[in-house]
């Protein structure tokens, strides 16, 4: 795996042509495997003998993972994404009520309000820079960060720093000393957030988690509280940030698809789903571990092997999505018997924030192109710098030309 990241699709196609499961070497020479094919990944994600707890990670348990390994947080953070069975159900239950479809729908007016304010900011930024502004900086980032920040009760003063640190946590080319420093600071900043909410409780998830911790018993430890906040901050904004960015890139690069939406041949929700399939915001997600030798699509994955979930590869798997799987098509019908995509997971660890990510992205795209119908990317796709990560799948900045305000 290239620690510098880059566009994954050419490599994914090459690997898929050889099979649905591939052996990979991660930074630091750590050996693992990746499940790439749609049906193979669907089976693997829901398999009862595949664990998330890093206690099953053989190389880590045997002390063969170097200190400061850039992917350590994905394996060792204490939270629902690294827990199994009763622990997973306990940790997920503490926050799940805030992310039901009904509760998320109640956030619509606030998301619309935030979106409109950010569109004003995007327009001002473009006016100050000759008509071009970075859509990620002024729109795609502050929207999900603002929403998750309000849900968690994270004051605005902490949000920029949390985004910077979460970027370092998901980077796969980061040096060991920087990785250790970023993780240490992330825990410290979230500790400060917890201290503020302990002193000034509010109607937010952090206060609810503090209450669960302070009630004692086995509901939540302090380490699990911080770990849950780490996961929710990162997943709560990085994925939606990439999703909105990738959807704008896709629509601007396929104007005929944008016209289909504006003519009513497809909805903005269809744009979101096709973007999730065609250019998943997370390319390879760490980690799962078979608890015994497991055969997936004819390939044996040995017990205790770390396994990456290849969401971007599965999204363009021709075996699942047809010979035109690499074509962006907002009117693409679901193939009979096939899940439209797996980019938000599958099984018991299906993304808890999926309803929120979908709502934020749908509102953002609809209002963005209604306000600026002539919006276009200001650089060729090949000139857009990519994330330094094979986990997150997007570009670092998205300069756009903003049409006259309407």
TrEMBL record:
It comes from the Bacteria. It comes from Streptomyces liliifuscus. The lineage of its organism: Bacteria, Bacillati, Actinomycetota, Actinomycetes, Kitasatosporales. Transmembrane segments: none annotated. Belongs to the cytochrome P450 family. Keywords: Heme, Iron, Metal-binding, Monooxygenase, Oxidoreductase. Gene3D superfamilies: Cytochrome P450 (1.10.630.10). One of its GO terms (molecular function) is iron ion binding. This is Cytochrome P450.
